[in-house]
Amino acid sequence: MNQAQNSEKLKSGKVAWKSPSNIALVKYWGKHGNQLPRNPSLSITLREAVTHTEFEYHVKPTGEGLTVDFFFEKKPATAFRDRILGFLEKRMPAFPFLNNVHLTINSNNTFPHSSGIASSASAFSSIALCISSIQQTLSGNQKKGNDFYRQASGLARLGSGSAGRSVYGGYVVWGALDGFNEYSDDYAVPILTDVHPVFKDIQDAILIVSDQKKKVGSTAGHALMEGHPFAGARYDQAIKNMNSLHHILKTSDLDGFVEIVENEALSLHALMMASNPGYLLMEYNTIQIIEKIRAFRIKKNIPVCFTLDAGPNVHLLYPNEYKAEVVEWIDEDLSEFCSGGKWIDDGIGQGPEQI
Ligand code: DP6
User: For 1, 30, 49, 315, which has the most beta carbons within 10 A of its beta carbon?
Assistant: First the structure.
C-alpha cells in the first residue's frame, strides 16, 4: 500500500442532515432526459415533514469499491438500499470518493410512515446534502455557499426531481424560465428577495384523506405526459402560472395567489384524469374538503386555498394570522373527512440543517 492509499484509509467520519419535504404550488409534471423537467415549478419547503439522515463513511483502499448498509427507522431496508446503491454508482464521476467507500446510512422521518406524504423529496435531499458534505470534507473545504447548495440540489434532483427544491427553505424554483437567468433545469434556486410579508408565513394543514400508498408512482405519473394530448398546453400554462405567481409573490395579492394555486392543483388532476390510462386520485372526501374550503373562503373572507399532490390528501394553505380560526374550523368541520381524523399542522420552513 502506498502512502496516499494509507492516508485515504484513515479517512472516516460521520455527517448528518435533516431535510424537509416540499409542496409544489406550480407543479412539475412531465420529465425528459436525465431527470430534467418539462416545465419550471415553484414550491414551498415545509417545516415539520422532515427526514433525518446520517452517513457514516469509511474510505477504503482503491479497488475495493462502494458498499452500502441502509437502515430506515433502525431496521435494514434492502429495497431502498438497492435504489440508493444504484443512484450512488451513477454519481461516481462527479463524487470520486464513492468509488471506494463503505457507507452506513441511517434514516428516519418525523412524519408518520403511513401518512401518504411523499418522502422522496426529504429523503433524497438529505442524502444529497450528506454526500456533498462528505465530498467537501474530504477535499478539505467546509464552506457552505451557493456552490455547495447548487451541487446538492442537482444531486438531489437526480434522485427525485422535486427533491432538488427541498435543499432550500422558503419559496424555491426549479427549471429554466425566460427572463430569469438564475433558474436552471439542472438545480433549484431559492427566491430570496422580494417575497411580500403576507406570503412569508404561509401555513399548510395537511389533511390526510388517505394514508395508503399512492396509486401511481411518480415515474409512471411523469411518463403519462409523454404523448399526452394536452401536454403542449400544459407546459404553456405552467410558464404562464410561474410568471404570474412570481409577480404575485412580490405583492400582497392573496386572491391572485389562491387562483393560481388552485388552478395548478386541479390542472394536475385533470391531466391525470385525461391520461391513458386515466387516474382518478381524488377521493370523495377530497372533494368534500375542497368544497368546504371554497365556501369558508367566501363566508369568512379569509384567503384559505388548497393544493394537491398526485394523491387524495389536501394541503390547506393560509396566512399565519388566521391560524386560530382555521385550526378551530379544521377540528370542527374538516377533520371528519380525514382518515382517523388525522391532519398535520405544517407550514413554510427554513430548509435543511446540518446536525
Ligand atoms: C405532483 O419529484 O416525486 O408532486 O422525479 O420521478 O421522483 P420523480 O418525481 P417527483 O414528482 C413530483 C410530482 C408532484 C409535483 C411537484 O412536486 O412538483
Answer: 49
Ligand 1 center from residue 164 Cα (angstroms): 10
Indicate the fold that domain 3-191 takes in CATH: Ribosomal Protein S5; domain 2 (3.30.230)
Distance CA 348, CA 9 (A): 42
Intervals of CATH 3.30.70.890 along the chain: 197-353
Closest among 43, 45, 307, 42 to 180, alpha carbons compared: 42
Domain with CATH 3.30.230.10 in the chain: 3-191
244: Cβ contacts below 8 Å, ≥ 6 apart:
256, 260
Say whether pLDDT at 113 is over 70: no
Q: Closest ligand 1 atom to the C-alpha of 22?
A: 17
Residues 6+ apart with CB under 8 A from 284: none
Nearest-atom number in ligand 1 for the CA of 27 is 18
Mutation test residue for ligand 1: of 218, 261, 267, the one with most atoms within 8 Å of CB: 218
Confidence at 147, pLDDT banded by 50, 70, 90: very high
Ligand 1-lining residues (CB < 6 angstroms):
24, 27-29, 35, 41, 118, 120, 160-162, 218-219, 222, 268, 309-310
Residue nearest to atom 5 of ligand 1 (CA): 161
Centre of ligand 1 from the C-alpha of residue 271, in Å: 14
Section 272-283 average pLDDT:
95
| Distance (Å) from CA 201 to ligand 1 centroid | 24
Q: Whose CA is nearest to atom 3 of ligand 1?
A: 218
- The CATH class of the 197-353 domain is alpha beta
